Amino acid sequence: MTSLDTVLDKDGVRLTVDDAVATVTLTNPAKRNAQSPALWRALTEAGRALPGSVRVVVLRGEGVSFSAGLDRQAFTPEGFDGEPSFLDMGRGPEADLDAVIAEYQSAFTWWRRNDLVSIAAVQGHAIGAGFQLALACDLRIVAEDVQFAMRETSLGLVPDLTGTHPLVHLVGYARALEICATGRFVHAEEAERTGLANLVVPAAELDGAARDLAGALLAAPRDALIETKALLSGAVSRTYEEQRTAERAAQGRRLRELAGASD
């Protein structure tokens, strides 16, 4: 794999790889990186195309906005070229609709694989599906001008692209409900204070901050970081005693591997 190899570039998504760091870029700034089914399929493909050497994935958007959310063309009678309109989907069989939504969700699920750490670098608007895409990542660095909003409920819909689970765990049920029910903006200061953002930086420093964090993550041995991420991500569903047991098992694996390496 050569440095800055372009692995994929289609439907508003570009995947480049530089050794252990991959960058997924949303590449339709003229439409504020509005999302479509084609873009979601490209994001799913990007996840499948990652070389095994990749340890950190940075997600970013070109232009002034990370992503303004779902392209409203989805709700027109004609929909997108070659795609069923969302209105037609709503008239179809329930099982078919469920399968289609599950396919869309796959674009948002691979970012938290235990063998990767994902970083969303978010500037400007991150609305609806854009907010949920940022939430799909493990970590978020945001620019001072960031504006998160979950607008689905205001449009008579629900957030269905995997964003509700991380939102509740980050900010708590009551604040998550209020954010979704009102559709209001969450700005940088609140995002950092409530745990939505790990770091706030000036917009001009966003890409550099993401690179610095990626470099810091690569400093830890890969297997130790994979075990640690699995421990932390599973902690919310375990009891205290179950977590203690998981810690012992993980540390045992690490010590046995280290002992084997020293023989």
Account of the protein in words:
With 263 residues, the chain is α/β, with parallel strands linked by helices. The protein has ten helices and ten strands. The strands form two sheets. The protein has a seven-stranded mixed beta sheet, sandwiched between helices. Strands 6-8-9 form a three-stranded mixed beta sheet. Helix 1 crosses helix 3 (94-109). The chain is globular, with a radius of gyration of 19 Å.
Structural class comes to: alpha/beta
Return Rg in Å: 19 Å
By DSSP (H or I, 4+ residues per run), the number of helices equals 10
Residue stretches low in confidence (pLDDT < 50, at least 5 long) are none
Strand content: 15-25%
Helix content: 40-55%
User: pLDDT average, as an integer?
Assistant: 94
User: Biggest sheet, strands in spatial order?
Assistant: 1-2-3-4-5-7-10
**What's the total count of β strands?**
10
Along the chain, the helix and strand elements come as EEEHEHHEEHEEHHEHEHHH
Distance between the termini: 32 Å
Q: Assign an overall shape.
A: globular
Describe the sheet with the most strands. 7 strands, mixed
